Amino acid sequence: MSTRLASGGRHLDRNTSVSFEFNGRKLKGFKGDTLASALLSNDQMLVGRSFKYHRPRGIVAAGPEEPNALMNLGENGHFEPNARATTTEIFSGLTAQSQNHWPSLDYDVGVVNNYASRFMPAGFYYKTFIHPRPAWKHVFEPFIRKAAGLGKAPKERDADTYEHFYAFVDVLIVGGGVAGLLAAERAGKAGAKVLLLEQSAHWGGRAPVDGAEIEGRPADAWVTNTVHALENMGNVTMRKRCMGAGVYDHGYALGYERLTDHVAPSTAPRHRLWRIRAKHIITATGAIERPLSFAGNDVPGVMLAGSVRDYVVNYGTSVGDRTVVVTNNDDAYRTALILKDAGLDVPCIVDARPHGGGALMEKAKAEGIRVETGKAIAKVKGGKRVEGVALCAQAGEGAVLEEIACDAVAMSGGWSPVVHLWSHCGGKLIWDDAHAHFRPDPAKAPTGADGKGFVSVVGIANGAMNTAECLTDAVKGTNTVLTDLGFSPKRTAAPKAAEEPETPMAAVWKMPQGASYKLRSKMFLDYQNDVKVSDVQLAAQEGFESVEHTKRYTTLGMATDQGKLSNINGLAILADSLNAEIPKVGTTTFRPPYHPISMGAIAGEASREIFQPIDKTPLHQWGEDNGAHWEPVGHWRRAYCYRKPEESVEQAVNREVKAVRDSLGLLDASTLGKIIVKGPDAGKFLDMMYTNMMSNLKPGKCRYGLMCSENGFLSDDGVVARIDDDTWLCHTTTGGASRIHAHMEEWLQTEWWDWKVYTANLTEQYAQIAVVGPNARKVLEKLGGMDVSKEALGFMEWKEGKIGGFDARAFRISFSGELSYEIAVPASQGRAFWDALMEAGQEFNVTPYGTECLHILRAEKGFIMIGDETDGTVIPQDLGLHWALSKKKDDYLGKRAQQRDHMTDPNRWKLVGLETVDGSVLPDGAYAVAAGTNENGQRNTEGRVTSTYYSANLDKGIALGLVLNGPDRMGEVITFPKVDGTEVQAKICDPVFYDKDGEKQNV
């Protein structure tokens, strides 16, 4: 039975007892225990049921590669499914429940699938759930949906918080074992800015567990000293419980940090997602031990040999009193020796190699441990826990030679370097026949746009399979990286490690041969998806020869462990079935994340009322303090109006509308997009982006421009200002800056990649304030510093200088039809400039106004609004904007699309003004219906309202709309049904309701 040893446990604080709950049972462990080690110490061998067959499953590993011990953790708002017991540290009050069973873990009715397994081989769902077709919806689909998935989705809102963190470093090192620590030390001493990530709660990796010696001291001591030195380097950041989740283009990487998973729920963020930009990434991610395939290799108590010794050394926990070790390499002998040293019995070491191992084998024999070479396990006896094993000859017919009583099996099929991060961004692999694994191919590294590699691998992950080789490789690899980055690494030798008895994983990979496969049943490759050896053989037999096809047909490696334990074994079986070599078969594709990460970490702070990040202008707090009634516009919050005490929203809007027309208004226009386009080809580029010419715009001048998609539909509009010969500033609609910037970059990177153009989104770098109304010029002249007269700054011109002591760009543009200036100042000066305007404007009854007033003012002038007059199907011609379509240039985005038949159809709806006969306000989005009915007895629509408002200046409702043949029907009355069954009549009129000749904006 598994139990806690009387001594040992380098990670434990035996003075601090911790109570936790598993499936309703109250259990105890020590501070430092993982949930897995605590369960084992309480002799809880059964921890879950398999996905397809519902077979009893126990803990197999000690790290993130664990396939079976997946738990539902917590309750209510602190619930998380599919958490690995091996990476979850216990704390007082922790509650855990096993998954995938009903009604209980011990008695699961789903185990009937196990007895029907012969009817559910690989691909059975493709073959079975086809006929009869009518049964799919009511029989097959509900059955499959109920069976699909592991764990259960939370039902309550997540009570925890999460965050994102951004880091920019010279060198990112993933892996805190001895290779990663040494690499960080070398890089730190060379002056590089370093970020070191370790996925577990402890530094040092396997070396302390395996008894390595470095510089004449136990590895533990060397690790402690190195960590202390790194903590005292100001240029080195170290994070434990932080996994390197993925590597992407241009040195971008993700880290996944578990901040409070090991303590009771708190107000601190639970998880943190690191978004990292690194000049170079070094992965020192170690290796993962492979299981062996034999009948019953999934019975609880069958574990990886390295993990068995992890539990003994790190947690003082024995997996069993009598453990049989089965291996095809030397490393598993370490486990046998450690078990023996802990006072536990090892009845036998079963070595598949005909002549066994070297010095470690001799040492085991000297300890009195029986070693059987050329043997394999025919079958593990037991159901919910190991009761014994039956031995057979490795190369024979599977006949049982002997049975040995035991309560645990420690298996080792060799070690596979963790190459996932290397592969995420295109790094290729080579087959190392001597060690029977794939390792990184240094000649085919992931490369950036400059053609240089930006990912390196060191240590065991690079195929250095003992401590001395690991340290030497770390120094060599790190020195190369530092030199390439321009640092001067210290050319000292790697720390010396004690000679190890033998390279522990030097055995050539060898699977059991011949009929022994065919005679044995249920030898599992993928524990999560219940994929057996026979499933892969069947896939090959049925023609699925590509490893990617086999993966999908059998679901091998498609579970949450992403094939960490099953891939190499599966490749070996497929290669054997195809009579091919493993490297010829190839590997499946590694994709990020390396290990599942929580949805909360991905979302970060984007939850509840801030599901999308809220962008706030520099004047936001002033609005909060002065009655702003907010509305969301994209990610921004803009003031709909500014309410005074005892004032309704409608009253506030009407007051603002009249104040701007009568005297002076101020608008926070900081949300308007501001994109710099610069370079020798910038003019040519903007001529393609906009429907009208921009290349001939003179510096100091502005021009209104339209943008269309490649399908010809209007997508944005705004004022473009030419800054100098090579620089233009493009204004976009609020909320459109990121979209338009991405649109520009897409065309530059995919179509016009050789044009010399640079773009930058500067929206948040500036505060922009519209000073509007008959007294706009007066208030600016009162502040002084810039000549804003009509002669010095004409309409659609801009100039730079000082206004009231502030650095400013003044744009003489108008979206209201009034005398108007839009003044841009650095964001840091935005609030102070606003305050200065408010003070100077007191004598002019200065009135801040919001977006609704803005809309009414522009509608009075017949100016369009993107998103109101446009809906993704409108072209400039529909809106009477033919004048903005250049006839001087051969092409622009959307030009050819606008020549298609349905774009030139004379019956397209056109923009007009609408006035209700009774002065009321038309419903927004209302459709107009024609008189009479069609052949189906229905009334045809002939237009729709795009914008509708009450105008306090005109004292009536006004609207803009798209109407069939609208410009040719001036004065005609059309009908708009309302949802309450009544109708309202509106007269088609000119869309310009106010100051048609534009005299007020040109004063």
Describe it for me?
With about 1000 residues, the chain is α+β, with helices and mostly antiparallel strands. The chain folds into six domains: about 10-110, 2Fe-2S iron-sulphur cluster binding domain, sarcosine oxidase, alpha subunit, N-terminal domain (Ubiquitin-like (UB roll), Roll); about 160-285 and about 415-485, FAD/NAD(P)-binding domain (3-Layer(bba) Sandwich); about 290-415, 3-Layer(bba) Sandwich (FAD/NAD(P)-binding domain), CATH 3.50.50.60; about 510-600, Arc Repressor Mutant, subunit A (Orthogonal Bundle); about 620-670 and about 765-860, Probable tRNA modification gtpase trme, domain 1 (Gyrase A, domain 2, 2-Layer Sandwich), CATH 3.30.1360; about 675-765, Aminomethyltransferase beta-barrel domains (Alpha-Beta Plaits), CATH 3.30.70. Residues about 505-520 have low confidence and may be disordered. Strand 14 (about 240-250) and strand 15 (about 250-260) form a beta hairpin. It is about 20% helix and about 30% strand. Strands 9, 10, 13, 14, 15, 16 and 30 form a seven-stranded mixed sheet that branches. The protein has a six-stranded mixed sheet with strand order 42-43-44-41-35-45. It has a six-stranded antiparallel sheet with strand order 47-48-49-46-51-50.
